[in-house]
Amino acid sequence: xxxxxxxxxxxxxxxxxxxxxxxxxxxxxxxxxxxxxxxxxxxxxxxxxxxxxxxxxxxxxxxxxxxxxxxxxxxxxxxxxxxxxxxxxxxxxxxxxxxxxx
Length: 102
Prior knowledge:
Blueprint: H1 3-8, H2 16-39, E1 45-47, H3 48-56, H4 60-69, E2 76-79, E3 82-86, H5 87-95
Helix pairs in contact: 3-4
């Protein structure tokens, strides 16, 4: 069986044997692509005040206070009214303690 021919053939025209052969041979390629996806993590972004609220698990007014405090400014990109926040960086910056009561 030729894999190229089987990929061009519609599923409803395949026999069970052809379908299983195609499925078994395509799994090895998917495992390799999944391994590369794990090594290249993509950045996760949240959008707007509502996204910040979901990220920190707080209310919208509290998320607005977090943004206004300046703690996560390095993670925020704002163009006009659109707010884009790098989630990982924002969580890292919010976790750092600076100042406070002594």
